Amino acid sequence: MAEQLAFDWPRHDRMGEETFFVSAANAEAHALVMAPAAWPEAKLALTGPRGAGKTHLARLFADRTGARVLNAAGIAPAAPLPDGPLVIEDGERLPEAAQEWLFHAHNHMRTRALPLLLTGQTPPNRWPLALPDLASRLAASTCVAIADPDDRLLDAVLMKQFQDRQIAPTPEALTLLRRHIDRSFEGAIEAVAALDRAAMAEGRAVNRALVRRVLDIAPRPG
Protein backbone atom coordinates (compact mmCIF):
# COMPACT_ATOMS: atom_id res chain seq x y z
CA MET A 1 0.00 0.00 0.00
CA ALA A 2 1.37 3.44 -0.93
CA GLU A 3 2.18 5.70 2.01
CA GLN A 4 0.40 9.04 2.40
CA LEU A 5 2.91 11.88 2.38
CA ALA A 6 2.64 14.95 4.59
CA PHE A 7 2.39 18.25 2.73
CA ASP A 8 3.05 21.75 3.97
CA TRP A 9 -0.58 22.89 3.98
CA PRO A 10 -1.80 25.63 6.34
CA ARG A 11 -3.27 24.17 9.51
CA HIS A 12 -7.06 24.30 9.70
CA ASP A 13 -8.62 23.83 13.13
CA ARG A 14 -12.11 22.42 12.63
CA MET A 15 -14.50 23.57 15.35
CA GLY A 16 -17.87 22.17 14.29
CA GLU A 17 -20.20 19.87 16.23
CA GLU A 18 -19.24 16.98 13.95
CA THR A 19 -15.59 17.11 15.08
CA PHE A 20 -16.22 17.30 18.84
CA PHE A 21 -15.87 13.77 20.22
CA VAL A 22 -17.89 13.10 23.37
CA SER A 23 -16.61 10.45 25.80
CA ALA A 24 -16.85 9.79 29.51
CA ALA A 25 -14.06 12.34 30.08
CA ASN A 26 -15.99 15.31 28.68
CA ALA A 27 -19.65 14.25 28.56
CA GLU A 28 -20.66 16.22 31.66
CA ALA A 29 -18.89 19.35 30.42
CA HIS A 30 -20.45 19.04 26.96
CA ALA A 31 -23.95 18.58 28.35
CA LEU A 32 -23.72 21.51 30.76
CA VAL A 33 -22.11 23.95 28.32
CA MET A 34 -24.87 23.18 25.83
CA ALA A 35 -27.60 23.90 28.43
CA PRO A 36 -27.11 27.52 29.58
CA ALA A 37 -30.65 27.66 30.96
CA ALA A 38 -29.44 25.33 33.73
CA TRP A 39 -26.53 27.54 34.84
CA PRO A 40 -26.99 29.12 38.29
CA GLU A 41 -26.93 32.90 37.90
CA ALA A 42 -26.44 32.31 34.14
CA LYS A 43 -22.68 31.72 34.45
CA LEU A 44 -20.42 28.71 34.08
CA ALA A 45 -16.67 28.12 34.33
CA LEU A 46 -15.26 25.41 32.06
CA THR A 47 -11.84 24.10 33.10
CA GLY A 48 -9.35 21.58 31.80
CA PRO A 49 -5.74 21.21 30.69
CA ARG A 50 -4.30 22.63 27.49
CA GLY A 51 -5.69 20.78 24.49
CA ALA A 52 -8.70 19.36 26.33
CA GLY A 53 -11.17 20.97 23.90
CA LYS A 54 -12.27 24.01 25.94
CA THR A 55 -12.03 26.34 22.95
CA HIS A 56 -13.84 23.87 20.71
CA LEU A 57 -16.66 23.48 23.23
CA ALA A 58 -16.85 27.25 23.77
CA ARG A 59 -17.20 27.76 20.01
CA LEU A 60 -20.04 25.22 19.89
CA PHE A 61 -21.77 27.23 22.62
CA ALA A 62 -21.14 30.45 20.68
CA ASP A 63 -22.49 28.94 17.46
CA ARG A 64 -25.65 27.83 19.26
CA THR A 65 -26.30 31.04 21.21
CA GLY A 66 -24.69 33.75 19.08
CA ALA A 67 -22.29 34.53 21.94
CA ARG A 68 -19.45 36.96 21.50
CA VAL A 69 -16.05 35.30 22.12
CA LEU A 70 -13.24 37.27 23.76
CA ASN A 71 -9.79 36.15 24.81
CA ALA A 72 -9.15 37.50 28.29
CA ALA A 73 -5.67 38.75 27.45
CA GLY A 74 -7.02 40.98 24.68
CA ILE A 75 -9.94 42.65 26.47
CA ALA A 76 -9.80 46.43 26.22
CA PRO A 77 -10.72 48.32 29.41
CA ALA A 78 -13.01 50.63 27.42
CA ALA A 79 -14.83 47.87 25.50
CA PRO A 80 -18.63 48.19 25.32
CA LEU A 81 -20.61 46.02 27.68
CA PRO A 82 -22.05 42.87 26.10
CA ASP A 83 -25.63 42.88 24.86
CA GLY A 84 -25.90 39.08 24.51
CA PRO A 85 -24.23 35.85 25.63
CA LEU A 86 -20.47 36.09 26.18
CA VAL A 87 -17.48 33.75 26.26
CA ILE A 88 -14.27 34.77 28.05
CA GLU A 89 -11.44 32.39 27.14
CA ASP A 90 -8.21 31.85 29.11
CA GLY A 91 -9.60 33.70 32.11
CA GLU A 92 -6.41 33.34 34.15
CA ARG A 93 -4.70 35.66 31.64
CA LEU A 94 -7.09 38.57 32.29
CA PRO A 95 -4.92 41.71 32.66
CA GLU A 96 -5.41 43.87 35.73
CA ALA A 97 -6.44 46.79 33.53
CA ALA A 98 -9.44 44.83 32.22
CA GLN A 99 -10.68 43.48 35.55
CA GLU A 100 -12.98 46.40 36.28
CA TRP A 101 -14.52 45.97 32.83
CA LEU A 102 -15.25 42.29 33.53
CA PHE A 103 -16.69 43.20 36.93
CA HIS A 104 -19.18 45.58 35.31
CA ALA A 105 -19.84 43.18 32.42
CA HIS A 106 -20.55 40.38 34.90
CA ASN A 107 -23.06 42.49 36.86
CA HIS A 108 -24.63 43.83 33.67
CA MET A 109 -25.15 40.30 32.35
CA ARG A 110 -26.42 38.90 35.64
CA THR A 111 -29.20 41.47 35.89
CA ARG A 112 -30.28 40.56 32.35
CA ALA A 113 -29.83 36.77 32.75
CA LEU A 114 -27.38 36.71 29.84
CA PRO A 115 -25.21 33.54 29.78
CA LEU A 116 -21.53 34.04 30.64
CA LEU A 117 -19.12 31.19 29.87
CA LEU A 118 -15.60 31.40 31.31
CA THR A 119 -12.78 29.05 30.34
CA GLY A 120 -9.42 28.40 31.94
CA GLN A 121 -6.97 25.71 32.89
CA THR A 122 -7.87 26.30 36.54
CA PRO A 123 -11.11 27.38 38.30
CA PRO A 124 -11.74 31.13 38.76
CA ASN A 125 -10.94 30.97 42.48
CA ARG A 126 -7.33 30.30 41.47
CA TRP A 127 -7.02 33.11 38.94
CA PRO A 128 -4.65 35.98 39.85
CA LEU A 129 -7.34 38.65 40.21
CA ALA A 130 -6.44 41.90 41.95
CA LEU A 131 -10.02 43.23 42.16
CA PRO A 132 -11.64 41.61 45.23
CA ASP A 133 -15.23 42.21 44.10
CA LEU A 134 -14.56 40.50 40.77
CA ALA A 135 -12.67 37.64 42.42
CA SER A 136 -15.56 36.92 44.80
CA ARG A 137 -18.16 36.94 42.03
CA LEU A 138 -16.20 34.67 39.70
CA ALA A 139 -15.24 32.32 42.52
CA ALA A 140 -18.97 31.70 43.03
CA SER A 141 -19.35 30.40 39.47
CA THR A 142 -20.52 26.86 38.89
CA CYS A 143 -17.54 24.90 37.55
CA VAL A 144 -17.35 21.88 35.27
CA ALA A 145 -14.07 20.21 34.33
CA ILE A 146 -12.92 18.16 31.37
CA ALA A 147 -11.18 15.15 32.88
CA ASP A 148 -7.98 13.47 31.70
CA PRO A 149 -8.65 11.67 28.42
CA ASP A 150 -9.81 8.07 28.32
CA ASP A 151 -8.54 5.85 25.51
CA ARG A 152 -11.38 6.69 23.12
CA LEU A 153 -11.02 10.43 23.60
CA LEU A 154 -7.22 10.27 23.28
CA ASP A 155 -7.60 8.46 19.95
CA ALA A 156 -10.05 11.13 18.80
CA VAL A 157 -7.64 13.91 19.85
CA LEU A 158 -4.79 12.26 17.92
CA MET A 159 -6.89 11.90 14.78
CA LYS A 160 -8.18 15.46 14.96
CA GLN A 161 -4.65 16.79 15.39
CA PHE A 162 -3.55 14.91 12.27
CA GLN A 163 -6.64 15.96 10.31
CA ASP A 164 -6.22 19.63 11.25
CA ARG A 165 -2.70 19.38 9.78
CA GLN A 166 -3.96 17.48 6.73
CA ILE A 167 -1.75 14.48 7.49
CA ALA A 168 -2.75 10.85 7.04
CA PRO A 169 -0.48 8.68 9.21
CA THR A 170 -0.12 5.02 8.31
CA PRO A 171 -2.09 2.57 10.49
CA GLU A 172 1.19 1.14 11.81
CA ALA A 173 2.34 4.62 12.80
CA LEU A 174 -0.88 5.24 14.74
CA THR A 175 -0.62 1.92 16.55
CA LEU A 176 2.93 2.66 17.65
CA LEU A 177 2.10 6.24 18.58
CA ARG A 178 -0.81 5.20 20.81
CA ARG A 179 1.44 2.84 22.76
CA HIS A 180 4.24 5.31 23.44
CA ILE A 181 2.88 8.85 23.89
CA ASP A 182 2.27 10.49 27.23
CA ARG A 183 -1.42 9.74 27.75
CA SER A 184 -2.59 13.31 28.16
CA PHE A 185 -4.08 15.98 25.91
CA GLU A 186 -0.82 17.89 25.84
CA GLY A 187 1.18 14.73 25.19
CA ALA A 188 -0.95 13.94 22.14
CA ILE A 189 -0.70 17.50 20.79
CA GLU A 190 3.05 17.70 21.26
CA ALA A 191 3.68 14.30 19.68
CA VAL A 192 1.66 15.12 16.55
CA ALA A 193 3.31 18.56 16.28
CA ALA A 194 6.77 16.96 16.46
CA LEU A 195 5.84 14.42 13.79
CA ASP A 196 4.41 17.20 11.62
CA ARG A 197 7.64 19.19 11.84
CA ALA A 198 9.80 16.18 11.03
CA ALA A 199 7.58 15.06 8.14
CA MET A 200 7.59 18.53 6.55
CA ALA A 201 11.34 19.02 7.04
CA GLU A 202 12.12 15.70 5.39
CA GLY A 203 9.26 15.55 2.87
CA ARG A 204 8.26 12.08 4.01
CA ALA A 205 5.27 10.18 5.32
CA VAL A 206 4.26 9.89 8.94
CA ASN A 207 5.03 6.19 9.14
CA ARG A 208 6.21 3.74 11.75
CA ALA A 209 9.88 4.56 11.17
CA LEU A 210 9.31 8.29 11.66
CA VAL A 211 7.31 7.74 14.86
CA ARG A 212 10.02 5.47 16.23
CA ARG A 213 12.73 8.02 15.50
CA VAL A 214 10.88 11.19 16.62
CA LEU A 215 9.67 9.60 19.86
CA ASP A 216 13.06 7.91 20.35
CA ILE A 217 11.53 4.47 20.73
CA ALA A 218 14.10 1.74 21.08
CA PRO A 219 13.56 -1.28 18.79
CA ARG A 220 12.31 -4.42 20.43
CA PRO A 221 15.03 -7.01 21.05
CA GLY A 222 15.14 -10.02 18.82
List keywords for this structure.
222 residues, alpha/beta, Rossmann fold, Helicase, Ruva Protein, domain 3, 2 domains, 5-stranded parallel beta sheet, 5 strands
Q: Summarize this, please?
A:
The chain has helices at residues 27-33, 54-65, 99-112, 132-139, 151-164, 171-180, 185-202, 208-214, and strands at 43-47, 68-71, 86-89, 116-120, 142-145.
What does this structure look like?
This protein folds into two domains: 19-145, Rossmann fold (3-Layer(aba) Sandwich), CATH 3.40.50.300; 149-214, Orthogonal Bundle (Helicase, Ruva Protein, domain 3). It has a five-stranded parallel sheet, with helices on both faces. 41% of the residues lie in helices and 10% in strands. The protein has helices at residues 27-33, 54-65, 99-112, 132-139, 151-164, 171-180, 185-202, 208-214, and strands at 43-47, 68-71, 86-89, 116-120, 142-145. It has 222 residues and is of the alpha/beta class. Helix 5 runs parallel beside helix 7 and helix 6 (171-180) packs parallel to helix 8. The longest helix has 18 residues, at 185-202. The model is unreliable at 1-12 (pLDDT under 50).
